[in-house]
Request: fold
Amino acid sequence: MITGYNTDVECDGTVYHVQTEDKGVDHPVILSLVYVDGAILASKRSPYDDLVIGGFDEEILVQRLQRQHKLICAAVRAGRIEDLKRLSARDAAAKSSQDTETAAEPPPSAVEPTEPDASPDPSMSTQQADPAADLIAGDSFLAEGAEEEELLHVTLMEDRELRAGDSVTLRVMVSRGAGNNRVPVSKARVTLKTLGTTFRAESTISTTDQDGIALLFALLPKFTSGRAAILIRVEVEGESAELRRIIQRA
Reply:
């Protein structure tokens, strides 16, 4: 599962919270939600079954996740909330229609296999082929806002295996930007939480230095049953990002 994005966007005196996340390969969907005061105003779902079927490529999924988040943030910033609501309704209608068609399809053994369509651009996102997404992709407000939107990233500098009972020192880098153009973010609040089904959650807090790096120290709880993970959450200037890693049993 890929790290999601959370951004607060102000438009005409109202602060909208935009959240985009990957639902995981078991439910291959990129989901964006637009909130105001905890109420969901609009949503955008983009399936990525093609990546799962064609050979999972995490880098392409990250690109799609980032692009969708940029598009939604740009739409909100441009005051296109009603367009987003209409997009949500069309998404819901399309999903309902797809579910109906799937239920009416013959069993797999009765369907002849077909060759997948060749695509000149393997990084083309699913929403570009989605008529509902074209409503947004073709609008002029994307000319600047979507490209200039800088996303917050959180990265473990040494991505090691985490095991119950270990004493760990984690170096976390916080940056903004895309691709090779990322710049470090200083004075970001970084919270490390240990979460589990058989013990109480604990947390520790740090702040990034001028190089965008924060040090976090933790004693991972011992457990022999259930599940556990660490959650690293970064917050700066009303924006946040998260990273999760599984803790293996002792």
